[in-house]
Known about the structure:
The protein has helices at 40-48, 63-66, 84-94, 112-119, 149-157, 163-167; strands spanning 12-17, 34-35, 38-39, 55-58, 72-74, 99-104, 129-133, 136-145, 173-177. It has 195 residues and is an alpha/beta fold. The chain has one domain (12-194): Spore Coat Polysaccharide Biosynthesis Protein SpsA, Chain A. It is globular. The model is unreliable at 189-193 (pLDDT under 50).
Amino acid sequence: MPGAVPMPAAACSILLLAGGRGQRMGGQDKGLVSWHGTPLIAHVQAVVRPLTDDLIISCNRNQDRYRPYADQLVSDTEADFPGPLAGVLAGLGVARHPWLVVLACDAPLIDRELILALMAQTNAHNHPVMARQAGYWQPMFSLVPCTLRNPIEQAWQQGDRSLQHVLLKHPVRALDFADDDRRLSNFNTPAFLEG
């Protein structure tokens, strides 16, 4: 089929990051905030569920509500919501496949083609892949080889808390998207939910 996205060469686990503090949402658990009558996590899960047999959700509260959406749940090893990198480390620790797709729970406009495009970037060099839009990296849309677990853990122990910064310490492959591609929109403030 012309324009079809190839299936990935290697199996991928998928991690949905839902462990944040939700400050810009007034402290609400973002993944459970309703959009069009359905929690944000459900919109994302519906797209990725058919693409993996290892769907992981990183959450630090409301585990009972997240459990039906995932094969595995993980939580940060440190208290007080230390950020997405903590969730990625937890996901890398349990991933059943060699590659981990990292996605935010508040990106309900993603589609199958976007996820398959990320998954198709698996490579023999174990280079991470990150979406890039208008010249800006989008670390919440990444593909991370599980072989990077130890280097990422070392960076964490040295005080680095930025997923983007940690990934860019390695030869990152860019997956470029158009400036106006709304699929990469993060619904991280109440205003987004009104659309």
